[in-house]
Amino acid sequence: MSIVTYNNRSIRNISAIPGAATALTHIKTLTASSSADLSFVNGTSDVVLDSTYPIYLFKLINIHPASSSKMNVFFRDGGTNFDATVTSSNFSAYHAEDGSATSLYYETDSDVAQGSTVPLIRNLGGDQADSSGVVTMYLFNPSSTTFVKNFITTDSYVYGSSYGAFSDRKAGYINTTTAIDGVKFQMASGNIDAGTIKLYGLKDS
């Protein structure tokens, strides 16, 4: 078996390393432009959200609302409506822009007890052109017909009228043993003015 050595003179000519596996596979990118919602549905517009991957990753990048509002996420369990039942928890940290206040606390207004509307970002500022938010959301084994489907989210955003930097941590489960085949992101009021949402699949480790 030969040993291949890569150095500063030859690495620039290598397009792929044999045997290197890519665990993260890009599936679909949606870009908002004054959009009512951004939705990913398995089998529609090249979206894969089934047993192909055990874990799916959503990345929300520079999400900007038309006006200050919550951003919600909804899940679909095989029907036509995004109304799958969810139970979740939420805690939040913030630092005021002027440095006057900080806090770390459980946020009761953003947890869900057997509801279908899940607040993903609690109050995303839209009154300033530079306000935006980012979110990472993992959805685990959505095709399972044996277990409920768990999800975890983290985010960073400007709260309301530039109140400061907020970061929330949410975790929960979609309380059904029916496969989840769709995910929708939507502001509680108004449109998604701008931003990008990317969907990736993660292979088995």
Please state the CA-atom Rg, rounded to the nearest Å. 19 Å
CATH architecture: Sandwich
Distance between the termini: 26 Å
CATH topology: Jelly Rolls
Q: What's the order of the H and E elements?
A: EEEEEEEEEEEEE
Strand content: over 45%
Q: Helical segment tally?
A: 0
Class from secondary-structure proportions: mainly beta
Low-confidence regions? 1-6, 17-21
Average pLDDT figure: 89
Name the shape in a single word.
Answer: globular
What does this structure look like?
By secondary structure, this protein is an all-beta fold. It has a single domain, classed as Jelly Rolls (Sandwich). The chain is built from no helices and 13 strands. Strands 1, 3, 5, 6, 7, 9, 10, 11 and 13 form a nine-stranded antiparallel β-sheet that branches. It has a four-stranded antiparallel β-sheet with strand order 2-12-4-8, with no helix packed on it. It is globular, with a radius of gyration of 19 Å.
Architecture blueprint of SSEs:
Blueprint: E1 24-35, E2 38-41, E3 55-65, E4 69-76, E5 86-96, E6 102-106, E7 112-115, E8 118-124, E9 133-140, E10 149-158, E11 164-174, E12 182-187, E13 192-202
Name some characteristics of this structure.
single chain, Jelly Rolls
